[in-house]
Amino acid sequence: MIPIGFKIRNAEGLYSTGGQRPRWSTHGKLWRTEGHVKMHLHGLAAKTYAGKPIYEGCLIVQLYSVEGSGRPLADFVAEIEGKKLQRADMMRHRRAEEERRRDEAEYDRLKEKLGR
After folding, report:
1. pLDDT at position 48, please?
2. What is the DSSP code (8-state) at residue 18?
3. Are strands 24-25 and 48-49 parallel, antiparallel or unpaired?
4. Same structural domain for residues 59 and 80?
5. What is the rounded distance in angstroms from the CA atom of residue 31 to the CA atom of residue 34?
6. pLDDT(69) > 90
7. Last residue of a domain, one of 65, 83, 107
8. Does 6 share its domain with 60?
9. What pLDDT, on a 0 to 100 scale, did the predictor assign at position 52?
10. Within 13 Å and on the Cβ side, how many CA atoms surround 110?
11. Residue 73 CA: distances (Å) to CA of 67, 68, 70
């Protein structure tokens, strides 16, 4: 296992976004080294929220990279290309539908204008 960084997790399982006014999210911020997270904590040492220290009751979580099973790069790229084609097809369909609606609205407007 290869260490990849640190996160700060609260009791609800959410992660700190870092910064001077940290918020909580499902992904949060990744500090690459222990020194970086220590510097962040030092900078917020005196800060409180609702009268309590910002990170009261939180855990420092060290994350590790675990190598899993691999797959051929060509399959991965083909999957990405397939999704790109699906999105392009969907956008083409949406544009055609919008154009059809605009044409129908213009046809109705002209028909009304000409009294037919």
Report:
1. 77
2. -
3. unpaired
4. no
5. 7
6. no
7. 65
8. yes
9. 79
10. 5
11. 16, 14, 9
Q: Helix, strand, coil proportions of the chain in percent (round to 5)?
A: 45, 20, 35
Q: How many domains, the chain?
A: 2
My answer on whether 58 and 84 are in the same domain is no
10 and 24 share one domain: yes
pLDDT digits (tens, 9 = 90+) for 4-63: 999 999 999 999 999 888 899 999 999 999 999 999 998 887 777 777 788 889 999 999
Query: Residue 50 sits in which domain range?
Result: 2-65
Give me the pLDDT at residue 49, please: 74
Encoded tokens for 115: 């009294």
Co-location of 8 and 44 in the same domain: yes
pLDDT at 10: 94
Domain co-membership, 61 together with 80 = no
29 and 80 both lie in a single domain: no
Segment 72-82 shows an average pLDDT of 93
Residue type at position 13: G
Which sign does the torsion angle of CA 35, 53, 46, 19 carry?
positive
